[in-house]
Amino acid sequence: MKLNYKRTILVGFAFFLICAFWQAYDNTIPLILTNKFGMSQTWSGVIMALDNVLALFLLPLFGAISDRSHSKKGRRTPFIVVGTLIAAVALVGLSFVDLAQLNNIKEVSAIDDPAALVTIYEKEKDETLLTPDGAHFTLSERFTQEEFSAIRSQIQEGEKTLVFFIVLLLVVLVSMATFRSPAVALMPDVTVKPLRSKANAIINLMGSAGGILVLALGMVFATASVRNSLMSYTAYFAVIAAIMLTALVIFLLTVREPEWAAQMVQDSVRYGLEDKPETVETDDGTETYEAQGQPAAKGGLSPEEKKSMIFILLSIVLWFFGYNAVTSKYSVYASNILHKDYNLTLIIAQAAAIISYLPVGMIASKVGRKKTICAGVIMLATAFGVAAFLRDNSPAMLMNAMFALAGIAWATINVNSFPMVVEMCSEQDVGRYTGLYYTASMAAQVATPMFSGLLMDKLGMTVLFPYAAVFSALALLTMRFVRHGDSRPEAKKGLDALEDMDN
Fold first, then answer.
1. Beta bridge partners of 128
2. Bigger pLDDT: 34 or 54?
3. Rounded (10°) CA dihedral 474, 478, 479, 485
4. How far apart are CA 503 and CA 501, in angstroms?
5. Which residues pair with 280 in a beta bridge?
6. How does pLDDT run across 224-257, given as a tens digit for each residue?
7. Cα-Cα-Cα-Cα dihedral of 287, 292, 297, 301, to 10°?
């Protein structure tokens, strides 16, 4: 039994385009909201949290719907096609609304402070303000009364444009949510259970490749440059949409979902991993999974499996509580506590994770997913625990080393946790349980920035890493109660058939 790497890479193009989109979205939408619509950081944060809030409900919903769908193209492919097309078109539409707002505020081009839009919108003309370098000034020193009134009028006119922008943004977010669970569920649909950790490592690498490509494009378009704070994103968004559509075309031309899904079930039966599927009666006659690429019915989880599912989902919530608190707050922590640039540290963590994806997938196939995840949780808690004692006089390399360890730990956890969830469910419910996985992770990502931020306000910023270490350690405790979903060959049937497994 060997993982078909080529097939897994082709399936991964769906996740590639998803990650390319989210990298561009997270990098540019906050800039548009604050620099062009004059939105405060608080309200910008509320808008940026919409995707996580919507995901809590939409990801399990569309995952379950895709489980029950019947199409000649398979259960997941139609969702991927329709969602990608709508999202790509709506993304280009967002760029045109952005351009319209840019025309609304064209007189503001004389302002050299990118935050001046918020300033003019919220402050009075004669109020004393500060430039980014600490110098005092009033808006009356920069603009005549007529200029100031004209600029404020144009910014207020932008409120109408903002309504269109938010509506189109919701279209984008909903369209992306319709196919994320189906796209991720496609990997277990076409991969036998013992090889899913390896396959998930490939899928994560494809996602990282999409994100890195967009970061490189951001450098080409200089989207992060202060001088481009009022740039038009039309060309940039058009390129992102083209990347998404190109990945979709590659996916459609190469992925044969029904055939590959049927072959997966045949292989599972041949290697003794699953019982032979029973036939399923439909309105059109008798169908089997082998013939149509649709799973045969199977009973729900046993009480022990339900207990394991609850604890693995709780573990996901806990380690996302710790990890996401750091990734969302570290830039503020580094500036105020360490007095260091945060970009290099975060890049090191991401690079360490990328390098680790394939090795940890292979390790899990040898020692089991649960042991591998527990090792990752220990590394994550250790990295955050040590980082809690580092200050501005600590060697920079020590913090970089802790983030490298955290990146390796996160790859170890991330590659194996999703396969553990779908290992316990029937092939009929992969989409639904994929949605549950994302519901757990998204719930944590919605709550932990607010909870950790509250503690940082009340107890001081130095509480960040102890907070992350505690939640990571708690995940180790909950993992002790997980008894199902592992990939150990001895937990399967047909041991002799697994002797040739590609470890």
1. 138
2. 54
3. -140
4. 6
5. 287
6. 666 666 788 999 999 999 999 999 999 999 999 9
7. 170
